[in-house]
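Lecture 7 notes: from sequence to structure.
We start with the chain below.
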Amino acid sequence: MPHKILVIEDEEHINELICLNLETAGYAPIPFYDGDALSQHLKETPPGRYALALLDVMLPGKDGFVLLPELKTLQIPVIFLTARGDLPSKVKGLTDGAEDYMVKPFEMLELLVRVEKVLRRFQKKEEDCHRIRDVEIFPKERIVRKAGTVIPFKPMEFDCLMLLVKYKNIALGREQLLRMLWGVKFEGETRTIDVHIGRIRKKLGFQDVIKTVPRIGYRLEDRTDGKGDALIQEEP
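Predicted structure tokens for the same chain:
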């Protein structure tokens, strides 16, 4: 499936030209001509829908600098395409979080090269990240974000969440989770797992994502990979 790229540019002929070149390069451009219209659209947009935004600064309604944090909240990387070539504007755009800043007029080939570089960079980031709904989990950094906001996790809570993610759509028994978390046969109460699961559900709003499996344990449901239900068998 081609990457969907937002093209936010109020000059219609420039917007059409960018979209035409993106289509030719194999992308799926989505044009917007007004900052307020884009802002309203983003309120109804889940994270992960768009791979990139090409954003003008001077727009009707909200300008590009105002729209940048709204796009970042949805983890959409941004390349500014603007006639504002003064140094303060460039510094503001880049320090506020844009991935690149191009000044009009620009060569279309250069734009396509920069688009490809940003997409490659973010694809690498996504490979090191698990995404479930609006939650991002970074195993190496041991960071969890929900809608762009870092959610604090205690070490054992994070490890428990990672086990559920690793074996998503698979029912895990409470005793299995305890053994995998502590690495030895755990002599305590299996209620320890219930407490951890309750905290994870509350922090991430995962009440309907982490399912209770009667008489067994828990299962994290994520059907984006098309897998069906399964059960890890207890060791004999």
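Points to note: Residues 225-236 have pLDDT under 50 and may be disordered. Helices lie at 12-24, 35-43, 64-73, 87-95, 108-127, 155-166, 174-182, 191-204.
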